[in-house]
Amino acid sequence: MRKLSVVLLMGALSLPACAASLDSKVPNQQTIEALELRASQAQPREQCYLYAELVHEMVEFSARQYAAGDVAQATGWLKRAQMFTSKIHMALAVNDKKLKDAQILLRHTAFRLTELLRASDYQDRPVVEQTLAQLNEAQNEAMLAVFKK
After folding, report:
1. Tens digit of each residue's pLDDT (9 = 90 or more) over 42-79
2. Helix axes of 29-41 and 44-68: crossing angle, nearest 10 degrees
3. What separation, in Å, do the N-terminal and C-terminal C-alpha atoms of the chain show?
4. How far apart are alpha carbons 1 and 86 in whole angstroms?
5. How much is the pTM?
6. How far apart are CA 4 and CA 11, in angstroms?
7. How far apart are CA 94 and CA 76, in angstroms?
8. Cα–Cα nearest to 101, from 56, 68, 35
9. What is the pLDDT of residue 12?
10. Pick from 148, 27, 55, 137: nearest CA to 93
């Protein structure tokens, strides 16, 4: 019984570290553009995860722009993220590689957008809310596709 509780405790403690590792890398415009190119040229089976990663990087970059006070840039990045979120819908297929990873990444990105929504000004909320709604829809579709496997 003691071994089981130690295993459960270690597992619970490693989850925040795993989530934190998603945000440990500081996104910049060059890495986002490189990821965008890579996603557009990838095999159809790999595009869903790459687009999810791209949207995540854009949301993180946008959050940093909001924190720096550059609201216009942040809003522009969120609108671009909306465009790529719609590409996730189109790229979603049951035989995708890393479909579960894409779903987890989308869920984490939705969580980060929820944090951004709470911290944003009243005027900026419509863009954040719209992006969050699209992202939640893509995450739900990805989750359903994972369960269909």
Report:
1. 888 888 899 999 999 999 999 999 999 999 999 999 99
2. 160
3. 34
4. 47
5. 0.78
6. 11
7. 31
8. 56
9. 44
10. 148
